[in-house]
Amino acid sequence: MKLWLKYLIGALLGLAAALILPLDSLQGAAALSFITEMIVRIGRYTLLPLLFFSGIMAVYRMREDGLLLRTSLWTAGTIVVSSILLTALGFFSILIVRLPRIPITTERVNEIASVDLKNFCQEIFPYSSFDALTKGSFLLPAFVFALIIGAGCCMSHSNIKPVLSLTDCLSELFYNVSTVFTELFSAGIVFVMCSWAIQFKSVLKSGVFTPLIIMLAVEFLVLTGIIYPLIARFICRNGKPLKILRASLAPFMTALLSGDTNLALPVEIRLGKEMLGIRQRTNGFAFRLFSIFARGGTSLVSIICFVVIWRSYSTLNIEFFDMFAISVTAFLLSFVMGNLPVGGTFMTLTILCSMFGRGMETGYLLLRPAAVIIGSFSALFDVSTAMFGCYIVANNTRTIERHRA
């Protein structure tokens, strides 16, 4: 049975459980929250070792084939262009569509979130390189450590062949273990879907956030059904957008229901290899960078949500240059949200309100009841970018294996 079909069956069972079972009680909600959290933790369990060992082999093999620079340029360029595209999509769509106002809340907070760039950089290079392997949610330190070791393996061949053989075996081992976990998640998705459906139902019940959710859903359909397939068809030689969409179904469901880009990453890696034929050297390199830096969905959703907050507080229109500054800020912030696989959108929205609020610095509280659903759509956009982007990178570096039927 196809993986996406297993996930779909599990999601339907979770939806039925959310509609039938009495889970609104305090004890039921606490138990469901605990089970969901454990499933997410188990799903991430083997991610760091998989990223580390496969990253080493990816750098080594690309360096041996002379593809390291080319793959790096294609990956970085695709990440930047996709983030610009999603930012522009959010910019123009919210200018064209005027969503209904959200009722003002009197809730206040004492602290306003901010981005600590100094701490962000220090986390990438901790005092000990082995500390890089302990960051469970921030994948960049472990990946940088893997890049350094992979580059070191290219300097001498005679003495490190046993190390390379061991690393290759460990990479294959953790890939197989990760494959088992992605299969088991088809059962765990029942609880994840049940938890998500309860929250989604409570958000829709008020009707306040329904137009916003509909707009985000339409944006996603336009992006993945029209824009990205046309780009893949135009840029890639013998590109197959429908094949990418079929491979993306399981990652889409994982991202939407969990709102966690790290949890969706093992599913992306597996289907990128098995269905799209992306070779290990590109798979072990590009998918990791897209998961960390390609957060254009965070930028898109944050811009739309900020304008909704602005229009809820004021009847004045946002001037074009102010809107442009807001979009540029959201675009730049998206590159430093890699340490927040969950909640990056709400953090970005909080910072935008503090910088451009002009009396509505705590306006992000208007959207706090829908924060989980908003984060789910952000993760959905980001996973879509990763699947199409990595296929584009692999196609243009000729690291795709063509499988016959």
Provide tags for this entry.
405 residues; mainly alpha; globular
How are the SSEs placed, and which strands pair?
Layout: H1 3-20, H2 26-44, H3 47-65, H4 68-96, H5 117-124, H6 140-153, H7 161-206, H8 210-235, H9 241-258, H10 261-274, H11 280-293, H12 296-313, H13 320-333, H14 344-356, H15 371-396
Helix pairs in contact: 1-7, 1-9, 2-7, 3-6, 3-7, 3-11, 4-11, 4-12, 4-13, 4-15, 8-15, 9-10, 9-15, 10-11, 10-15, 11-15, 12-13, 12-14, 12-15, 13-14
Helix/strand/pairing class, anyone? mainly alpha
Termini separation comes to: 17 Å
Residues in helix, %: over 70%
Please work out how many helical segments DSSP would assign: 15
Order of helices and strands: HHHHHHHHHHHHHHH
